[in-house]
Each structure stands twice: as structure tokens, then as C-alpha cells.
Amino acid sequence: MNLRSLSHSMIACALALFCVGCKDAPGRPEAPSTRPDQVLSFAVLYKDNCAACHGENGKNGAAISLANPVYLAIAGVHNIQQITAKGVPGTLMPAFAKSKGGMLTDQQIAVLAQGIESQWGSANALGGQAAPAYASASAGDPAQGQKAFSTFCASCHGVDGTGLIRGKLHTGSLVDPAYLALISDQGLRSLIIAGQPQDDMPDWRSDIAGAGSRAMTDQEITDTVAWLASHRIATPGQPYTHP
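Above: the chain sequence. Below: its structure as C-alpha cells.
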């Protein structure tokens, strides 16, 4: 082997060793990872965007339980998708759609809505019964709502809605302006219709003895929401003024 051939061989070996060593060299740029807007895993999207408020498994969070088949049957994928995209003005529910200033694509929002339904929905959630409409089609009457509340809700929440402490039963106030400032009328309606199973709160098919073991009507739900909403004030959380 002449010197020129040996030199070429040594250079080739050196280049080969250099390239092999580059794989783990400090400071070497990593291979491009998946961009956030390319993530289409329901588990990842839910954990990163929903779990903090709605709970790791769709319940026991600060916001309404999503792992409630009755709620999902009434709301439906379309409404859940719209709420996720646009948020709920005046509440802590933000808009997630990029077109509304959020971070998620329309495809990612669709994955979330469909995944929530697939993960926690049930075809038999309503037991064949006709449920009240997700959204109210008429205005509510607060005076009638107070009567409906007394019949269907007072045994757990108190006649005036300020809550009860009785044995193991401990419910907070539903008429506290600070609470009402954080929940929309639709949120109140959704809770009344779907209940909160993890908190032993029944859905609209309440079997409260005083109600004659009948379900709430759509109008009674609408009126009850109107009565609760009538307790809102313009500046919740501000110190009370003194005369």
C-alpha cells in the first residue's frame, strides 16, 4: 500500500469514527420532535389542557365532571366541541381554539370532544327517558324557581340555597355571589340536569320524597336557574359598603 492509499484509508476511518461519535456528542442538535399542533393523542391533549380543572379522570376537579354519562348524553359531542373551542365568557372556561386566541387546532378540539364521549359516555345513560334540552328555550321565572328549588333542592342545599351542615351532609352555598360569578346559567342548568354522581347529587330525575318521586320538568329547571342567577351582583368579592 503506498502512502497516498494509506492516507486516504486513514482519512476515511477518521471520518467514520467522527460520524459515529457525533451521535452522542454534547451539544448535538436533537432530532425535531412533534410540534404541539401535531399532537392528536386524546390522553395527552386531555392531560395538558383539561385535567387541571375537570380532574385527572374526568371528575373530582373544580369544574363540572366530564366523566358523567348523563351530562355527556345531554350535551352531546357538538356542544362539548363548541364549548372547548369558544370557552364560556364570564367564567374560568377559556377558549382553546386558535381562531379564538387559544393553542389548539380544530382537529385537536375534535379529538378532545370525541375522546371525552368515547372515554366516559354511555348509550344507556338516560335509561330510555327523554331528557330536558341541553339549553333552555325560554326565559325563567325566579319566583317559580324558588318554589321549584324548595321542592327539589332544599333538602340538601337549604330552603334559601345557602347550604346545610347536617351529619355527613355538608353542602356549600349556591347563592353566594362569588360562586355565581364563576358559573354561567348554562353551567347551573347542566348541573341540575346531569347531577354530580361523585358527590351523590342526583340528576333531574330526583326521587326526593317532597317532589312526589317525579322528575323536574324543563320549565322547573329553567325557573330554578333564573332564581339562582337572580342572586348575582355586579361586583362579587368586593367589600360590602357600610351606610
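The two ends are 107 Å apart (CA to CA).
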